[in-house]
Design brief:
The chain has 6 helices and 5 strands, in the order βαββααββααα. It is α+β, with helices and mostly antiparallel strands and 172 residues long. The protein has one domain. The chain has a 3-stranded antiparallel sheet. The chain has a two-stranded antiparallel ribbon with strand order 4-5. Helix 4 packs antiparallel against helix 5.
């Protein structure tokens, strides 16, 4: 038996795409859900075996929208305390993108079309890896950056490589 915790489509206190209102809703909603998954991984690391993030499909009178779900295998949670600990840490989600040092993938300005800052989760994660990188002395500007940086680099190796390539290009 599994428990499914619906974490929402974006951090709780952030603006996000609105079904029936936001132009290009499905693309922006999926982008935000993917970025939210990355933000939770940045904050908590990859889920242990017995937990997984999944995109949940929700039906509404206005159409379909997506949210991020955390699946927790109840028997795995009983066998492995890491599963229960991870679920407990992640179950409340995040309040703001900045908790994971991730820039909002979309900016919403009243009365204007949404502004898409980065078009893919890979770009969003690459930006967060660059923002949290250690300085030339190997130290992190903010101690929490070390955790965020390590978790994102481990979960998204292609974005870590892209960040390294950007840094090498800059220093050349």
């Amino acid at each position: 038996m599994s428990d499914i915790i619906d974490l929402g489509g974006a951090p709780a206190n952030e603006d996000c795409a609105q079904l029936g209102h936001t132009p290009d809703f499905e693309r922006l909603n999926r982008l935000e859900v993917g970025a939210y998954r990355a933000a939770l991984i940045a904050r908590h690391g990859l889920p242990p075996e017995g937990c997984s993030f999944r995109t949940l499909t929700n039906s509404h009178d206005f159409g379909v929208y997506y949210t991020l779900g955390l699946y927790v295998d109840a028997s795995a949670a009983r066998r492995d305390p890491r599963v229960a600990t991870y679920a407990e840490a992640a179950q409340d989600g995040l309040a703001h993108w900045t908790e994971a040092c991730i820039a909002p993938p979309v900016r919403y300005v009243d009365g204007a079309a949404p502004i898409v800052e980065r078009t893919s989760v890979a770009e969003i994660v690459t930006g967060a890896i660059l923002a949290t990188r250690p300085g030339p002395d190997g130290r992190f500007a903010i101690p929490d950056f070390e955790t965020l940086h390590r978790n994102l680099a481990a979960a998204y190796p292609a974005s870590a490589e892209a960040a390294n390539a950007i840094l090498q290009e800059i220093s050349a």
